[in-house]
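Researcher: Good morning. I'm working through a list of sequences from a screen, and I'd like to move beyond sequence-only analysis. For each chain I'm collecting a predicted structure so we can compare shapes side by side. This is the next one on the list. No need for commentary yet; just the structure.
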Amino acid sequence: MNPHRVFNFNPGPATIPTEVMEQARDQFLDYQGCGMGIMECSHRGREFNQVRESAEENLRQLMGISDDYAVLFLQGGASLQFSMVPMNLASGQQPLLYADTGSWAAKAVKEAKLFAPVQVVYSGKAQNYARIEDCESWEMGADDPGYLYVCSNNTIFGTQFHRFPEYPEIPLVADMSSDIASRLVDVNRFGLIFAGAQKNLGPAGVTIVIIRKDLAARSRDKVPTMLKYSTHIEKESCFNTPPTFSIYMVGLVLEWIKKRGGIAGVEADNDHKAALLYRAIDEGDFYRGTVDPACRSKMNATFRLPDESLEAEFIRQATAAGLVGLKGHRSVGGIRASIYNAMPAAGVETLIEFMREFAKANG
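Model: Good morning. Structure tokens for this chain:
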């Protein structure tokens, strides 16, 4: 490992595989002998078309995405999807069903209410989002809903859906920004999946949308052209200039995932890292996990120390030791270790060693 590289536990933008960064560095000035970097190439030229097509094909293979779905590389972050989803999929009269499992889901609810009636079928707010109740207990009373919306992993509070709702007659929409391609999922169970790339699949700047083509056809005439999924399907994500370099980086990360045994391979690695870290959190009284163990995220482990002054010192010393990005979200405090696909096991093991030494010195 480069002696100047740290272990990056930031929640996003997050760590990118070292070999991907090295490959991008080596091609930065001259992409495959064309005499310029890929970010300088025309988005309609041969070089970038190959990059985009390869990235889409690899994502389809890795996630098992059929031809019934379109794969789009868009801009605006996952936050724009909070509006684009209801804008395109809501009729204006059909109720939209949302599960409020954290801050990002709550933001999505707020945006959806601008376009259609919204029914919150589940909210974990009263429990400070410390768990996700079984989907069978949700209040699914709406007639003919447009879709059911979930956020699959909650970066701020550290919870994750380990089993998705099963209502085959209702299109399931999922914000997978923080766990896409980290575990095997059956794409056919979803009507639409979206994810900002900056946690598991590359740098900030590109948002991946996987949408069933029949749902994309729902869009009403009054939806602005730029905000219609059908526009971007027809133009193969090149209606306007796409974020070319970010898409190129996603392509490199997808190749890296293939080399690690595909998504099944990285899922096994992620399970191992999460088990190690949660075992260390639970092994004594010094650290305290913040969510129900049955709902713990394998991407974002959140925990507290005995008091806030110790948390501040923990973060200071960890940063000095090359363990960066461990401060919890400003809305909840505490410690958060984001252990996405590209976080090596060595990073988690180093963090655990630091945690044990810190507890011994301050417990």
